[in-house]
Specification:
Layout (H helix, E strand, L loop, with lengths): L1 H22 L9 H67 L1 H24 L1 H14 L2 H29 L9 H5 L1 H19 L1 H7 L1 H28 L10 H21 L10 H24 L9 H22 L6 H12 L13 H8 L17 H33 L7 E2 L5 E2 L2 H19 L1 H35 L7 H30 L1 H37 L1 H4 L12 H17 L4 H24 L8 H26 L9 H12 L3 H14 L5 H11 L4 H11 L23 H9 L1
Helix pairs in contact: 3-5, 4-5, 4-7, 5-7, 7-10, 8-9, 8-11, 10-12, 11-12, 13-15, 13-16, 15-16, 15-17, 16-17, 17-18, 17-19, 18-19, 19-22, 21-23, 22-23, 23-24, 24-25, 26-27
Length: about 775
């Protein structure tokens, strides 16, 4: 302590020295020494005064605390003395307990007798009170009747409690239910049951009671609340004494909620009694509309009429919303699980109704939406059981959707088959097909087909986006399948015609219309693909759907080309006999063969001009190709071998002239300029090979043919050289060997003219004749 004081003094001296040094810096400040000293003395006096005040207040606090401690010590001593005196008194009073035991027993007996005496009036009047209460219940005076019941139950419960205590004190194994008192009050339970039935009846018609007799409803609920309070008291009493009065707890509140739920179910069931006859296709639409109006009207009535009658803790409005939702869910689930596959419109109706369930026409109504949203989002533990789940489970919705999609697919398939059947019957008519604005033949099939598909897509989109996607997949696959159905009908039609060409009057015009139909269907499919792709987006439309549509589109384009080939078959059947004379002695110097072919083609082209542009260009190209093919086949078949150079020159000139006629005819009919790549140029090259005299130059022409046409093989060259008649086989083989022309067929294309021609004398021709 002394050291701390010394340190404090040293610190004070150092601080003072610093302060004096800071105020006496210049000599002229020495005159102010006295003034500075007085200022410091004043500050010292002020500090001393504050210290004295602080010390004095601390001393006063210590003095006060000491006085309190002294007073507490005295009080403790007094309490200790008093406790000792009380202990002594208890010791002295202990013998009195034995002396007053008889008084205690007498007091308890007197209390029981007093309680019994107070109930004597009620006990003697029990039969009369029961009868009176029964009449009150029948008359509907429920409050008075319930008052009597509660008095009877209170009397019974008090008496039975005493009996229970006596048995318990005596350690008896008997139950209070074996006592005469219990049997005496047995009719009271019947009164309670009768009251419960009356209240249940009123609660079961809550909506009607709220509209017409709200007093009855409120009275019933007051009685239920009284019973709930009595149940609570009895439960607390059981915790204290172990005694539970007979018939308790009654749980009338839970019973009322069960009655309300049952009444809602009955309301739904009564409306379904009208559904015995479901032959009318609109039965489901009408029933669901009736239920929508009923639910909306009932819930609004509950909000404005029923809710004010119920205690707030019932949350009756939310309870009704939940019960109606649950009943509607079960009803719709029944409809969904028992859906008739032959009526896809019913699936649409159900799915559409479910989609609009939370809309403004029902639970999204201004009067209901706030409460409905609260129930949908309800996550509180006490109300978790009343949370609104989905109207139908995902599994049922998926099942219903799958049924709709399957039924729609089956219906589309059936419609397509019927369309094809009707269309094929129209092909046999004795009149020309319809003509469109651009002059092409067509039927109404494409328009009817795509109207049907578009309607199904619109219905699917109206139900749900994923349903539309599934229907879109059905449309794509149906289009692809219909191409096969259509093709089979076309082949049957073609076979019928070629078996008896007189059986169909307008074969070519209707085949033209069929070809145009295929092109129109392909165009409509392309439009549908692009439209849905734009609406759904690239990601949703997906590569799979794109591939499915492209597959269908290509199928119809291919079918249109196949129909063009069938049309050309008619032409070549007519001129087949003339092709047999081609490149024979009969042909040489005669224009009959090619003139007949050209005339026949021009005649048929009167029907071809009614083709769509794409098909028309294809058929004219194929016509030219097939004419040249027959020409080349005739040349390489060695039907004629020229005797001298003059015959070869005449034949070459005739070939060139006929090639020119063919080319000009095709150009004139198709209205397309003659191309240098025209198949007719093959005939000009063949003519050059026949015309030339020098074999050296012939080898150059043969080499040019092989270079220009990769499908030109060694056997073609051999056959062509053999037609000249001026070269031996050995010489021909040597020339071909020198030119190194391909010999095997596998390495050449079969799409070209030469690739489809088997020359006379070749191994392939020998095999072909053997197979024939």
């Amino acid at each position: 302590m002394t050291e701390e004081v010394e340190l404090a003094k040293c610190a004070a001296l150092q601080k003072a020295s610093k302060y004096v040094a800071s105020v006496l810096v210049t000599p002229d400040q020495l005159d102010k020494v006295e003034q500075i000293r007085r200022k410091i003395m004043r500050n010292k006096a002020a500090v001393d005064s504050r210290l004295k005040t602080a010390v004095q207040s601390q001393i006063d606090g210590i003095r006060s605390g000491l006085n309190e401690l002294k007073s507490a010590q005295e009080d403790i001593a007094y309490v200790k003395k008093s406790l000792e005196e009380v202990s002594n008194i208890f010791v002295e009073c202990e013998p009195l307990n034995d002396k007053l035991l008889k008084v205690k027993v007498a007091h308890e007996r007197h209390a029981k007798l007093a309680k019994t005496n107070s109930h004597l009036g009620l006990i003697f009047n029990v039969p009369e009170t029961i009868k009176l209460t029964e009449n009150l219940i029948k008359e509907g005076k429920l409050l008075q009747a319930h008052k009597n019941i509660m008095e009877l139950e209170a009397t019974r419960d008090d008496l039975l409690l005493e009996v229970y205590k006596i048995y318990k004190e005596e350690g008896s194994k008997e139950s209070y239910t074996d006592s005469p008192l219990y049997a005496y009050f047995s009719e009271v339970d019947n009164l309670s049951v009768g009251m419960k039935k009356q209240i249940s009846m009123i609660i079961s018609r809550t909506l009607a009671a709220a509209r017409h007799t709200p007093t009855e409803l409120v009275t019933s609920l007051r009685i239920v609340e009284r019973e709930e309070r009595s149940d609570a008291r009895c439960i607390n009493q059981e915790k204290l004494t172990g005694f539970m009065p007979p018939g308790r707890p009654k749980c009338w509140k839970d019973h009322c909620q069960a009655v309300i739920k049952k009444s809602v179910e009955n309301r739904f069931d009564s409306n379904q009694l009208e559904l015995t006859d479901k032959t009318d296709k609109m039965w489901l639409v009408r029933h669901l509309e009736r239920m929508r109006a009923l639910i909306l009207d009932d819930l609004i009535s509950v909000k404005h009429l029923v809710r004010p009658c119920f205690p707030p803790n019932y949350q009756i409005f939310k309870l009704y919303i939940y019960y109606y939702h649950d009943a509607m869910s079960r009803m719709l689930e029944g409809f969904a699980l028992n859906q008739n596959p032959s009526r896809p419109n019913e699936c649409v109706t159900l799915l559409q109704w479910i989609a609009e369930y939370y809309g403004p026409e029902l639970l999204g109504h201004e009067e209901l939406k706030d409460y409905v949203n609260e129930l949908k989002l309800n996550t509180t533990k006490e109300n978790e059981e009343y949370r609104l789940e989905d109207l139908l489970s995902k599994g049922v919705i998926d099942s219903l959707t799958e049924l709709y999609v399957k039924t729609t697919a089956a219906n589309i398939k059936s419609c397509l088959e019927k369309m094809c059947l009707s269309e094929s019957q129209d092909w046999n008519q004795d009149k020309l097909p319809e003509t469109s604005g651009d002059g092409s033949f067509q039927t109404s099939l494409p328009i009817i087909l795509f109207q049907m598909l578009d309607q199904n897509l619109q219905v699917g989109a109206f139900i749900k986006r994923n349903v539309k996607l599934k229907i879109l997949d059905v449309c794509a696959s149906s289009l692809k399948d219909f191409a096969g159905i259509y093709k089979k009908a076309i082949i049957d039609f073609k076979n019928k015609y070629f078996e008896n060409r007189a059986s169909v009057k307008y074969f070519e015009p209707y085949m033209v219309s069929i070809c145009n139909n295929c092109i129109i269907i392909a165009e409509f499919s392309e439009q549908m693909k692009n439209q849905q792709r734009a609406e759904l987006g690239e990601e949703t439309f997906s590569e799979t759907r794109l591939a499915a549509f492209n597959l269908a589109i290509n199928a119809y384009k291919t079918l249109s080309f196949e129909i063009c080939d069938i049309l050309l078959d008619s032409v070549f059947v007519d001129v087949a006999v003339y092709y047999q004379d081609l490149f024979t002695r009969k042909w040489l110097g005669s224009p009959v063969v090619i003139a007949t072919v050209i005339a026949t083609l021009e005649d048929y082209s009167n029907d071809y001009v009614h083709l769509k542009h794409l098909a028309f260009q294809y058929i004219m190209k194929q016509a030219e190709d097939r004419i040249i093919l027959e020409y080349v086949r005739a040349v390489l078949s060695r039907r004629i071998t020229f005797r001298n150079l003059d015959e070869r020159k005449d034949a070459a000139s005739q070939i060139k002239e006929e090639a020119k006629k063919i080319s000009e005819t095709i150009s004139r009919i198709s209205k397309v300029e003659i191309s240098q790549d025209s198949p007719c140029s093959i005939l000009n090259l063949i003519a050059e090979v026949l015309r030339l005299k020098s074999t050296d130059i012939v080898s150059l022409e043969i080499s040019g043919l092989a270079t220009k046409y990769p499908d030109f093989r060694a056997d073609h060259a051999l056959a062509l050289l053999a037609v000249r008649g001026d070269m031996g086989r050995t010489e021909c083989l040597q020339l071909i060997s020198d030119l190194k022309i391909k010999e095997n067929e596998s390495s050449t294309s079969k799409d070209g003219i030469f690739g489809r021609v088997i020359p006379a004398g070749s191994v392939l021709e020998s095999l072909g004749s053997k197979f024939k």
